[in-house]
Amino acid sequence: MAGGDCDAGRRSILMGGAFLGAALATGAAAAPTSDGRSDSEPRNLNGQPMPEPSAEQSAGPIKPGRGSMLQGKTAVVTGAARGIGRAIAVEFAANGADVVCVDICGFVSTASNAKPATPADLDETVRQIRAYGRKGEGVHADIRDIGALRRIADDVDARYGKIDIVVADAAIQRWVPLLEMTDADWRDVIDNNLNGTANTIRAFAPKMVARKKGRIIVLSSMQGLHGTKDAASYSASKWGIIGLMKSAALELGEHHITVNAVLPGLVDTALTRYEKRLSETAGEEGQELENPTPQQAWDIRAPTVPLKVGWLQPDDISPAAVFLASDAAAMEYQVTGGDSAKDI
Questions:
Q1: What is the pTM of this model?
Q2: Which of 190, 208, 266, 341 has the highest count of CB atoms within 10 angstroms of its CB?
């Protein structure tokens, strides 16, 4: 395939497994009827009509692009200065949304192996959003400060008239054995990743409840489905986010707000692009290397992944977020990417 087609094919393969169940369930359906429905048979049983969800509770009839159209939507994305957060924010804009990008753009904690994001990083995200002709702005804020998040929610709601989509992406990662952790190595990762995600939901969801509509997407990790040697605080925070997502979905569903989690596999971002992470990646596959090169780490890990890739790219994850943010995503989903075939 040519370059563009290759990229499209890569995305289709990487993300396809997450939606396999839905694809199998609908693959044999009839062609759409005149009203856009895919079923041509009368919707009744023994002459009795089958109850149907209201328009607010359903994705509605089939129409082109319904899983990728975000025109007229306003989104807020935390951790948007770089990595997966930037990819989601920019992909939202590419599909028609205006995006408010929230990031601390600076030091978070000693319990982070990655270099902090910078104001210049956030400016670049905003530049890419505006390049698609959408409104984009950056806001410096710490997700551990729920008061700051509530002020942002009030401001965005007042100026844009609504908040349709919220993505809680901001996170830090710490690699150190559990018995060698300082208090900050545990506390700060949990406080930023889990408490910060809860703060984001608590600050922005009331605006959606008032409108009886909304999409909330939280970023967990495949490390939220299994233990992680030397990264207990990160793994625990991502497990917690899954429980938070499920609980929030139960509470907010009655307000026609969906809450979904995206669980990426290993993704090449500033959060993971450093020597300690590469050595841990090799160690996970039983090969102890002090300072492996990126190529060595890739060659060790790739054979263990069904798609034979050492790690994903941020824009392998962002298309799933677009679907979850769209009107087509009227249900609750759990989207995994990359190496999920190895896990339950």
A1: 0.81
A2: 208
